[in-house]
Amino acid sequence: MGNVTRGTTNPNRMRRVDRWITGAQARRLRSFPAAPLAVDLGYGASPATAVELFDRLRAVRPDFRLTGVEIEPTRVAAAKPLERDGLDFRLGGFELPVGEPPALVRAFNVLRQYEEDDVGAIWDLVASRLAPGGLFVEGTCDEIGRRATWATLDADGPRTLSLAVRFGSFERPSDVAERLPKALIHRNVPGEPVHDFLRALDGAWLAAASLAPFGNRQRWIAMARAVGDAGWPLVDGPSRWRLGELTIAWHAVAPSPRH
Questions:
Q1: pLDDT in tens, 102-124
Q2: 1-249, superfamily in CATH?
Q3: 3-class secondary-structure state, position 107
Q4: Dihedral angle at the C-alpha atoms of 110, 115, 116, 117, nearest 10 degrees?
Q5: pTM (two decimals)
């Protein structure tokens, strides 16, 4: 189920989301029963980022398995020589052609090529396939992974939105808007919660300009603390902020209902 995407990718492009998965979610990953399964959905023309995710998950727990799923047969055939114990590649789409509910599904730069109205049904379908306690991480990043955003879902729906940037790759935090998940990218307009949030980040970033001589990391931490103090429901803290990350509860940025 799904459409063939452009498939463009680069090695290490997903490093920011993988760092969050294996860092912020490490306790969750370790909580699953033996030999949990992850799915890299729509890994693209090269399987490099699927292999990277497999290796990174195995650093958290050595019994993790990963299946790369692609809807384009030649991409699956090209990946087959890289299979090894715990890592395989299969033809398929959003239906997830695996024999058990996965603990983790990562889909990056996939839904960006769909219509916004398609997103809800796709999210529901993939989330319904998760193992108890499982996560669906869906997002977008730029071509070399300097700016990334992702939504995290569980069986009950979307839970959070995360932003992750390389310091020095932006002038204002709202520069990441062009990489928002499909559910939000067209909602960065006045009157929408995600627009208000990005404006709040920009304002706090500018207000923290006096910290620039101490480095963008200190300025980002001050920005995050300021928006949290202003009432935005951030769900992480300085240990993640210092990496150029920021995660907020989904309800605070969810799209407004359309009439």
A1: 999 999 999 988 899 999 999 99
A2: Vaccinia Virus protein VP39 (3.40.50.150)
A3: strand
A4: -120
A5: 0.95
